[in-house]
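Lecture notes, unit on protein representations.

Consider one protein chain, 134 amino acids long.
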Amino acid sequence: MTAVLCVAKPMNGLILFGHGARDPRWAEPMLRLRERITARAPKTPVELAFLEIMEPDLGAAAANLVARGCTSVTIVPVFLGQGPHVREDLGALVERLRAEHPALDVRCVPPVGEDDGVVDALASCALAALPADR
């Protein structure tokens, strides 16, 4: 009899991390972003997570991905820059997440607002807001 070793293929999940707000409409752009990512990469599990007020928080979003079979997660802060929420609060939350899920590979990238492609898209959006030359 031959033993067969089954090794599960690693599954990478994505967490879009935002600030959160009292008004649920604030999350609408985050929901649209998740929809666009899912349309482009339908096999990639994507969760939203919020620092405060809204749910789920980072821990719950990561737990959802682990329950879906993810072995690693990449956290994408949907912030324009590295203010205290990203530099301090998010760092502490990521460390807590690593302690709660030691087998989970947790990666956190810089805020989206620091990406040149995002800055270019924002510049294009701002310029498109100008009235047309007459």
